[in-house]
Amino acid sequence: MEYPQPTALYPDERSVKSAELVGYLNNKASISTFVDPRFQARRQIVTIDELAEAIPAEKSWVLKAATNAAHGASLDVYLHRAGDPVILPAFTDVLTEVVVEEYLNIQHNWGVQLYVAADGRARLLAVTDQRIDADGVYTGGRFGLIVPLPADLLTECLAIAQRAADVGYRGMCSLDCAQTYDGELVMLDLNFRITSGSIPLLALHTIRPDALDRPSESTKLTTSAPIATLLAALRPALQRGGLIVTGGHDTRRTDNTINQSTLHLLVFGDDHDDVTTRRTELEALYDH
Length: 288
Hints:
The protein is an alpha+beta fold. It is 24% helix and 31% strand. The protein is globular, with a radius of gyration of 20 Å.
């Protein structure tokens, strides 16, 4: 139940968390319900008919497919820079409403990994740095030695997770937050599910707990080759150590007509620069 599921297939009484609760908590449009106003990023929900007026070409803004209308669709992000032509992403063709969010000049971007245990208490697992590309899309995380999260923002993250716990949520969650260059602290997204930030931490905790406090970075490799070929090419690096495969997918095992394999990896070691270099070299080998 990490994502909303049809109740006809998974009745609520068989689930730790209901589909309705999962959908409600992961709806970015309802972030104001759980986040203190002083940490809320400025955003508005608009219908597709209102979109043209809400996204002027002369201003920078972020468009997110992250409302109730997006459940079952692709939860995508589109970044527009002031002055560029507006080219609407594909998700605006299938949704009835979207979120328009202010553009922020971000200095630090954190993923705060928390969990709510069976006792209903929110606890901190770890804080990670997020790597974001030029289009504002998440490309992986940094773990271990990171820029510390300001104390008041960390307090708010724990409070947010506890508010979700109080309405019945149990399990892992990741809160995306940031600090701008002018010192503003904002909460960007609430992800009440296992995420690409929490999975590497769980892998390290299980396989190499001694590496939890050492530098590490996650990444994703994508190629048209079969996943077995991709794994074979990675075998020498795996044998050298400092690399963990945390997940994988091959569309050949589905009814998708496009042949594509994806591997999620975690690179770790004793030196931050060495970890970054090895991660970059792996990405350069494939159509990343």
